[in-house]
Write a structure and sequence with these properties.
Length: 555
């Protein structure tokens, strides 16, 4: 930067040690120490003359500490330097360095210089300063300021061992001040570290307080029962939901052992899970307790070990009331049982009469009948067969999910190829083209996946366009690391957008039986099977162009 005062550069080779010291302080501890001492009258006068010759009015005092560090106070400006080229100018609140520029000085610097000028004690301050580039740094300032030429003489004589006679007391005072200044300089690191540690402690304390408030709010307002137990199994905390669960107030629960609070026939099982949690293992289980009113609650409980200094000091728990869920599940099981019973009855009582109708109808067709009589008989047998198929598919849909899935590694290509063989005759008669590119393997129920492929191929054959050859593509792609997408695409008549969701409902038909045969259960069965595998099914279609069914399944 360009210097404001051209008289500042001075040739003084004996000052190189002061420059080394100043640079070391700035680089290693991040602060600058300014020490102000005393200099002889002759040196002050020569410097004053130099300033006057440079056009600067002198109304201040010049100091030097062992002639290696100088401070010049001039009205509202303070000029300090160590050797030629290393200087800074304080003007207003800005500090300019020849080698370190754009630094803001802490507030109160000039006021401190003015206020301490006539006090014979060291001045010390620490400040956190912001540079223009956005970085923060610490500055320590130590000032020892005197304002009498007589004191210049007294300290100069004292430092050189001369007798000051009646001025010896002031000389001793000055030496004492110098010792205090030296002690402050030595302790600068301790002071800075203490200030930083205090700031860090206050910040950590504030963050800890916010964290505790956040935890307390989550604990108190949790809709589930939240509690904590010590190592002996005694309650140490309980939230409002826990009070409602137990129908007891918190102050009557805290301090009590859980065996004295919980009325349950499953206490031995609860104790087992508690002991495992004390060993550092999170536990999740279901249990039943009895409230004071006699009502029984089904609870889903999670026990989480609480650690302190690497040791388990207690157990934190969350209990969710699942009584209504259990009740709904029980009712659902009852409905499923009834449906299963109905399926068994339907399988026998409905299918048996239909089988007889079909059998007798086939026998009658062998006798001599008039054309109209034969037509009636054909309709009767056909309707009976459709009824048999419908009942069979209803039973199939009802049974899905009742029996556990037989999951095993399966090859999609093998399953689809076997299903294709069953339709090969009809596809060949239609001149259809089928491409299978199912390269992935899954863990699934092979029998149910075969049913899915069968229904999709049947659907494509039923809804093929009559004015062009049918084309069917079966292929698979990896949707993610753990899921695979299976697509079945055809060039059939397509499905209107308004029916893209409803086609998966049971008995949903988009065409009359005279146009397209079927029961309307095929796609409903496909969706049920995919749901059982925790998958997803969807379709995209355009009228006259075809339809693509997409099945997303876990690997």
């Amino acid at each position: 930067m360009s210097m404001e005062y051209n008289w500042l550069p001075m040739v003084a080779r004996s000052y190189w040690r002061s420059l080394t010291l100043a640079c070391w302080l700035w680089g290693s501890i991040g602060c600058f120490v300014i020490s102000v001492g005393l200099v002889s009258v002759s040196f002050r006068m020569s410097l004053t003359d130099a300033l006057l010759a440079a056009g600067v009015g002198v109304a201040g005092v010049v100091f030097s500490y062992f002639r290696r560090f100088r401070l010049f106070i001039h009205r509202q400006r303070v000029i300090c330097w160590i050797i030629a080229g290393f200087c800074f100018l304080l003007s207003g609140w800005q500090l300019y360095f020849a080698f370190q520029t754009d630094l803001y000085v802490f507030p109160g610097f000039l006021a401190a210089i003015t206020g301490v000028g006539l006090i014979f004690l060291p001045f010390f301050t620490v400040s956190n300063n912001l540079r223009k580039d956005g970085n923060w740094l610490w500055i320590m300032l130590l000032l020892y300021i005197l304002a009498s030429i007589w004191w210049f003489y007294a300290l100069n004589q004292t430092l050189h061992g001369a007798s000051v006679l009646q001025d010896s007391v002031p000389g001793v005072i000055l030496v004492g001040h110098f010792l205090i200044l030296t002690m402050l300089y030595i302790c600068r690191d301790v002071i800075l570290n203490f200030h930083q540690l205090t700031s860090q402690r206050d910040k950590a304390s504030e963050e800890l307080h916010r964290s505790e408030q956040h935890y307390r709010s989550l604990f108190d307002h949790n809709p589930n029962a939240a509690f904590s137990l010590d190592l002996s199994g005694r309650f140490t905390d309980l939230n409002k939901s826990g009070e409602n669960f137990l129908e007891r107030e918190k102050d009557k629960v805290v301090g009590q052992h859980y065996e004295n609070v919980l009325a349950s026939n499953e206490l031995p099982r609860v104790a087992l899970f508690f002991d495992k949690a004390l060993k550092g293992e999170p536990m999740h289980y279901e249990t039943v307790i009895q409230r004071r009113s006699g009502e029984r609650l089904n609870l889903s409980v999670s026990n989480i070990p609480m650690h302190e200094d690497g040791k388990v000091v207690g157990v934190f728990g969350i209990a969710q009331d699942i009584t209504s869920i259990k009740k709904t599940y029980s009712e659902l099981e009852q409905v499923n049982d009834e449906l299963q019973n109905f399926a068994a009855v339907a399988s026998h009582d409905l299918q048996e009469p239909l089988r007889k109708i079909v059998s007798f109808g086939e026998l009658l067709k062998q006798s001599e009948l008039k054309e109209q009589e034969r037509d009636y008989l054909e309709r009767m047998v056909s309707a009976s067969r459709r009824m048999q198929q419908l009942i069979a598919e209803i039973l199939e849909l009802a049974k899905l999910g009742r029996d556990s899935l037989k999951l095993e590694p399966v090859d999609l290509n093998d399953i689809a190829s076997k299903v294709l063989e069953e339709h090969q005759a009809k596809l060949s008669a239609m001149g259809a083209q089928v491409e299978i590119n199912l390269r992935h393997r899954l863990t699934a129920d092979a029998k149910l996946l075969a049913r899915v492929f069968d229904n999709l191929l049947t659907n494509a054959i039923k809804y093929a366009r009559k004015d062009r050859k049918l084309k069917i593509e079966l292929y698979s792609t990896a949707t993610s690391a753990d899921r695979v997408t299976i697509a079945c695409s055809d060039n059939g008549i397509g499905i209107e957008a308004t029916y893209h969701q409803s086609v998966f409902r049971p008995f949903k038909r988009l065409h009359s039986r005279s146009e397209v045969p079927g029961t309307g259960m095929g796609l409903a069965i496909v969706k049920k099977i995919i749901d059982l595998h925790n998958g997803e099914v969807s379709l995209t279609s355009h009228i006259g162009q075809g339809t693509t069914f997409k099945l997303v399944l876990p690997k």
